[in-house]
Amino acid sequence: MIGSRRRRLGSREREGHVSRRYFGTDGIRGRANTHPMTPDVAMRVGMAVGLHYQNGHRQKVVIGKDTRRSGYLIENALTAGFLAVGVDVFLLGPIPTPAVAMLTRSLRADYGVMISASHNPHDDNGIKLFGPDGYKLSDAAEREIEALIDSDMSSRLAAADQLGRAKRIDEAIGRYVEAAKRTLPREMNFEGMRVVVDCANGAGYRAAPMALAELGAEVISLGIDPDGFNINRDVGSTSPKALCDKVRERRADLGIALDGDADRVVLVDEKGRVIDGDQLMAVVASFWKEEGRLSGNGIVATVMSNLGLERFLAGQGLTLARTPVGDRYVAEAMREHAFNVGGEQSGHIILSDFTTTGDGLIAALQVMAVIKRDGRPASEVCHRFDPVPQILKNFRHKGGKPLEDEQVKRVIAAGTDKLNGHGRLVIRASGTEPVIRIMGEGDNAALVESVVDEIVDVLARAA
Asked: pTM score, two decimals?
């Protein structure tokens, strides 16, 4: 497997895809104030995490959040749970997810928590957990924590004189901005570049414009007025139209769109066209290879990344290692096989020389550095390959396991045969909602669409 140009790493199917009560693909997520995103569950998560990691010394946890109104509810409940088992809490306030990962390490905390539902609307929220090394927890650790959440922890509460203490860290954003700037050579600046940054009314609304301005760019900001309810609403990486329009209107050199917790990014070129995560990984991989900085002789991406990226990398003599969907699985594969570039088509870009998780701001800064160095427009620098036609459809079901239906299995096998090596099918159940995601891609767009539609039709009959 390691010697092949296309690798498949870290498959969750090998674990039997064990059903879990709380944790999904990226932590715990759900509708705010509805199970499992209730204050009761959040408090028990704090208690369970604190008890799970007991290691003989007084423990510390850092807690960050995005800008959702429900963040106050979850933050206070988590804090109560940690304090109850004797864990000290550092509260970071609204801050990007990658900043939580970074500060978990720099503050020498035992774990980090991010309260966010990422790109979801404001009425959802979630809890993401990081270990002391700044990496997201493994499936095994999450299963152990789940068992504790559902157990009786009352006998393990701290004595009155051993309760934890809570403290707010006021300079957290500044520390993150400085760390992001240090990922660039000291002589690199963005003077002369006009940049529109869309912060999705989310966690990056202060950090991203600050970093870009301090690096010399002329900054035009969108999505920097959070009110608790407008996170990701018609802004951000999943809704880039406003950014595309603003880039054209202001004749900007580049647009940057973060999502609600700023761990993913898409760019917009000077013509107002979106640049996705696959193209961004191609830019960084090519540049780092040229500089002798690329490790692993390739990159890690998920099964959803475009076949065009795989072909482009092959032409560069590089490999593409594929993992299941989820930046956590990308990060695990990067660590195991010594890659330093990885990510997802959606814009989770992990550059492990600098960070342990997806970081939208740092990824954008690295691509901007290539644009500045080359002296060419973003539309040229960031178009490394023509994507293969790709169709993604979501089928929402009422429960059960539609993919285990025999008729569904047969139509998927037949579709694979029809593509016959000139395309791919990826069919998977969402880890966060009752949705089956059907992705097909290939050189013949009409054939791909017919194959995907046929699978959707059979799923509808089987559900």
From this structure: 0.90
Distances in Å between the Cα of 80 and the Cα atoms of 41, 77, 88, 103, 166 are 11, 5, 10, 21, 9
Catalytic choice (70, 116, 118, 305): 118
Can you spell out the DSSP letters for 271-317?
TS-EE-HHHHHHHHHHHHHHHT---TTEEEEETTS-HHHHHHHHHTT
Residuewise pLDDT in 10s, the chain (463 residues): 333 344 556 544 333 344 578 998 789 999 999 999 999 999 999 999 999 987 778 999 999 999 999 999 999 999 999 999 999 999 999 999 999 999 999 999 999 999 999 999 999 999 999 999 999 998 899 999 999 999 999 999 999 999 999 999 999 999 999 999 999 999 999 999 999 999 999 999 999 999 999 999 999 999 999 999 999 999 999 999 999 999 999 999 999 999 999 999 999 999 999 999 999 999 999 999 999 999 999 999 999 999 999 999 999 999 999 999 888 899 999 999 999 999 999 999 999 999 999 999 999 999 999 999 999 999 999 999 999 999 999 999 887 788 888 999 999 999 999 998 789 999 988 766 788 999 999 999 999 999 999 999 999 988 7
Nearest to 318 by CA among 305, 291, 338, 300: 300
Facing residues of 303 across strands? none
3-state secondary structure 387-421: CCCEEEEEEECCCCCHHHCHHHHHHHHHHHHHHCC
**In whole angstroms, what is the distance from residue 377 CA to residue 271 CA?**
10
Residue labelled with tokens 């051993």: 162
Classify the C-alpha dihedral 32-33-35-41 as positive or negative: positive
**Structure token digits, residue 164:** 């934890």
**CA–CA gap between residue 158 and residue 87 (Å, rounded):** 9
For the CA atoms of 177, 346, 334, 52, the dihedral, rounded to the nearest 10 degrees, stands at 70
Read off the CATH number of the domain in which 394 is found.
3.30.310.50
Q: Is 118 a residue of the active site?
A: yes
Q: Please give the residue range of the domain that contains residue 149.
A: 11-171
Domain boundary among 171, 194, 224: 171
Domain stop point among 122, 140, 171: 171
Q: What is d(CA 352, CA 340) in angstroms, rounded to the nearest whole number? A: 5
